[in-house]
Amino acid sequence: MADDFHTGGCQCGAVRFRVEGKLGDASVCHCRMCQKASGNFYLPLVSVRGAKVSWPRGERKRFQSSNAVWRGFCGDCGTPLTFEAPDGIALAIAAFDRPEGITPTIQWGTEAKLPYVDHVPSLPGEETMADVDAASYLAHLESYQHPDHDTETWPPEEKR
């Protein structure tokens, strides 16, 4: 897939997006609004202001989190999708089908950074099935999550 074409969407697949053009700056925001909007320690975002963004499936719901910013999300499953400010839109990096290629280069909102975030990489790590107490249900777990790709053929053959 070309570097100037990306797809993604929410966990349930009700909302899908396409980005045609170069992605902008990728960042991690620790501000309290981003923490609340993502339900997480921070929110990784990538700017798409120089690219064409389309929404081929579903309509994102939006919440105005401040006088200048709207947050887009899936109204069915709640997946955070957008940060929409006067200077453009940023998309949640983890909502992309291939997030591993989008690397943040700066952290913002560090005044609200949770004190233990920098220590998370030093915590012991285990694979999912190593959780013996959960293994009995994990072994039979069936994911209802939308796959990390569009179900229709995209991009068209001439764009591959």
TrEMBL record:
Keywords linked to the UniProt accession: Lyase, Metal-binding, Zinc
Any GO molecular function: metal ion binding
Database matches in InterPro entries: CENP-V/GFA, Mss4-like_sf
Domain CENP-V/GFA: residue ranges: 6-117
Family classification: Belongs to the Gfa family.
Protein name per its UniProtKB record: Aldehyde-activating protein
Lineage: Bacteria, Pseudomonadati, Pseudomonadota, Alphaproteobacteria, Hyphomicrobiales
